[in-house]
Write a structure and sequence with these properties.
By secondary structure, this protein is mostly beta strands. The protein contains 1 helix and 4 strands. It has one domain.
């Protein structure tokens, strides 16, 4: 979730400060000793553009991304996140 908050945007770059409010589905696509690939469906909101700003942008909704994590023992670290939301 922290990786997403630091690097993501939503709605084709119109929502620049999103955070995951809730994970609604996680699916493991690949799991090896070295890495884990996960498809995540989530509900996001934007800290500054919540739709009440009069600009016509509602920065809240459901979306999906693929995350690739590196494994080192019991530690996981995100090394890649799909650049655009998967719909």
């Amino acid at each position: 979730m922290r990786h997403y908050e630091r690097h993501a945007s939503e709605q084709h770059g119109r929502c620049l400060n999103p955070y995951m409010d809730a994970l609604t589905r996680l699916e493991i696509v690949e799991g090896t000793e070295a890495r884990l690939v996960v498809d995540a469906r989530y509900f996001y909101r934007d800290r500054f553009m919540d739709g009440g700003d009069g600009m016509g942008v509602d920065c809240a909704g459901f979306s999906e991304r693929r995350f690739t994590l590196a494994r080192a023992g019991n530690d996981l670290r995100v090394i890649e996140m799909s650049a655009t939301a998967r719909r």
